[in-house]
Amino acid sequence: MNKITQSLLASALFSMLAFATPACSDDDPVVTQPGHGIENCEWADVNDADLKGQTLIYEFDAPAPWVATSSDSWCTLLTESGAAGKSSLRIKVAPNEGESGRSATITIQVEGYAEQSVLTIRQGEGFLEKGEGKYRDVNNWVYEFMAANYLWNENIPDMRLDYSLDYQQFLLSMLDGVAKNGDANHDDGYWANGERLGYYTYIQSNAPLSRSAGDRFTDSGLAIIPTILGSRDDDPCGFAVRWVTPGSPADIAGVKRGDFISTVNKIAVTQNNYTSLGNSVLNGNVTIDLNDVTFTNGSAVITNKVKSVLVGKDTYTDPSIYKAEVVEMPNGKKVAYLMYFGFHTDYDDQLNDVFAKFKSEGAEELVIDLRYNPGGHVLSSTVLGTLVAGAQHKGDVYVQTTYNSTRSAAGEVGQYKIGEGTNPESNKSYDPIVKALDNSLNLKRVFVIGSGTTASASELIINGLRGLDITVNLVGTTTHGKNVGMEGWQKKFGSYNFIFYPVTFFCENAKGFRDYSNGFTPDLYIDDSTTYPGDFGTMKDALSSNALVWASTGSQPSKTSARSTTGNIRVLKATPEMESLQNRRMGGSLTMPREISE
Questions:
Q1: I need a labelling partner for 258 at 20 to 30 A (CA). Which of 64, 73, 346, 414 fits?
Q2: pLDDT bracket for residue 451 (50, 70, 90)
Q3: Bigger pLDDT: 539 or 568?
């Protein structure tokens, strides 16, 4: 047999054998390897991730293609599959902003292997602490006082709190926790369009957190309004002076409310540069041009008052009393006018002296301008209430403080009375209240200028006097609406002094009325926000002029006559620095802070 014949026979035999072998069916089992097949993996059974979030990367060897899955969305796989060989498992872990630790399970299935490789990503255990823990002693102190004295303290004992936070965050977490319980502490805070802008309750350490009467500042002492004097873009641009702090560099330089600043350091103010020039005016050490502004048929007329006035920068104390004088009206009636910026006990003796002067000059009516007054001490408000009401109401309740259910059940209540120095804050008599009886005008009515800034101790004047059936005629816009007050405590921790002011009482008048959390509605509504400012207590100022006319004539001005004698302006967007002077801390029905030594 030759080689060709042998080859043909071999080929035929192979074909016969091939057809004789049965084919594999789909039902035959797939052969898998035991175990998970992964080698040289860098992960452990349990792997910890940072609470702030991070990306984890683990290397491993896979004998075949693989697929990974995650049990939770906060633990996201950046590599969900891979080929055989050297592989990387990349996992993105989101920040844990919850109160408790959490874990996620990652599984890896290698093709052809019976088991899965399983690893756990852990992000904290149990209740989480997210701070440094340096203020634990302060936070314990805050908790104790909140649990005992906060006006809505029944919501506090069941809270889970992180004592490792700094003292500001810790207090905020408590306040937010109460708010989550049906908005229980709605009255602790100021609101706009249904949104809480902040809480009244606060804590500070070693320095005031915001501007208020009696604080010291280093700047020019000006508050300004960036404005265009007309409806056209090419109308004059500059700064209308809203107020000048007495004793400040601007006051010493002769700047007055209502002055118009047209140039700064010889640069004309425009819509393009007013933000930087305005901030430099506030900071001080600038030269400015001052102008008078009058309006003829609604059009502004600018007259230069003085050129190149140097306004310095210095440290000064912001006082409570900005202006106090007796205005003699055309009909001969003498009306006392008081521009009062804050209720501060350091100025109660001066307030007594002012009213003694009002009395000696024969003042028959009184206008109290509280449009920029966010409140202050209850004692000081009682002094002013006594200076208005006088001996006819001696011993009558001016303000009654009602506390939380626990303190009220124990019979605790506080009363501040007209002309009496006894008070809930100490066992000592507060003499300026007693002294106020001698200087009182003994009025049956008073005229108050208010705005959305008028709050707390300022609103106590309105509510307290109305509780005595003294007529309070309110001019301006709706007041802020703070019907609660804060008791103060202070304690030293190490080298730092902490002052804590939680909301602890409602403010009621002698008739038990306290429902003014939406503010007091004015009897004569005048919004002067787009009106050129005139000097306080004069007929050039929209609010002052109408209050003075009403006080002198006894007749409420009509809406027509309530229009300003000056003109309307276009107010430009203020910088944060400009707003910071005008938006003081809301909340100041305060008691004097008590020293805690233990």
A1: 346
A2: very high
A3: 539
Identify which of 395, 376, 375, 390 has the alpha carbon closest to the alpha carbon of residue 440.
390
Helix (H) / strand (E) element for 147: namely helix 136-149
The rounded Cα 17 to chain-centroid distance in angstroms is: 91
Span 551-567, mean pLDDT? 76
Inter-residue contact 74 to 89 (CB < 8 Å): no
pLDDT tens, position by position, 417-447: 999 999 999 889 999 999 999 999 999 999 9
Mean pLDDT value of segment 547-571 = 81
Tokens representing 349 are: 């003796």
Q: Are 430 and 376 in contact (CB under 8 A)?
A: no
Instruction: Determine how β-strand 314-317 pairs with β-strand 286-296.
Output: unpaired
Name which of 387, 519, 401, 525 is nearest 465 in CA terms.
387
Nearest to 342 by CA among 207, 245, 252: 245
Please tell me the distance from the alpha carbon of residue 224 to that of residue 492, in angstroms, as a whole number. 39
d(CA 459, CA 104): 55
- pLDDT grade for 13, boundaries at 50, 70 and 90: very low
Measured between alpha carbons, how far is 562 from 462 in angstroms, rounded to an integer?
22
Q: How many CB atoms lie within 10 A of CB 341?
A: 27
Backbone torsions φ then ψ of 406, nearest 5 degrees: -65, -50
Six-digit token string for 129: 């602490």
* Euclidean distance between CA atoms 311 and 290, whole angstroms: 11
* pLDDT for 4: 39
Residue 186 CA to its chain's centroid (Å): 14
State yes or no: pLDDT of 369 exceeds 90: yes
**Range in 9-18, 39-48, 234-243, 402-411 with the lowest mean pLDDT:** 9-18
Is residue 367 a contact partner of residue 358, using CB atoms and an 8 Å limit? no
Q: Which residue has the tokens 């996992």?
A: 91
Cα separation, 40 vs 339, in Å, equals 79
CA distance 415 to 379: 11
Helix count (H) and strand count (E) of the chain? 12, 35
Taking alpha carbons only, the member of 332, 322, 397 closest to residue 365 is: 332
Q: Is the pLDDT of residue 212 over 90?
A: no
DSSP 153: G
The three-class DSSP label of residue 197 is strand
What's the one-letter identity of residue 455?
A
One-letter amino acid of 236: P
CA–CA gap between residue 161 and residue 177 (Å, rounded): 9
Total-model pTM? 0.78
CA-based Rg of the chain, rounded to a whole angstrom? Answer: 37
Nearest to 520 by CA among 557, 550, 558, 476: 476
E strand or H helix that includes residue 432: helix 431-439
Cα separation, 456 vs 460, in Å, equals 6
Place of tokens 């491993």: 60
Q: What is the pLDDT of residues 103-153, one digit of tens each?
A: 999 999 999 999 999 999 999 877 767 777 889 999 999 999 999 999 999
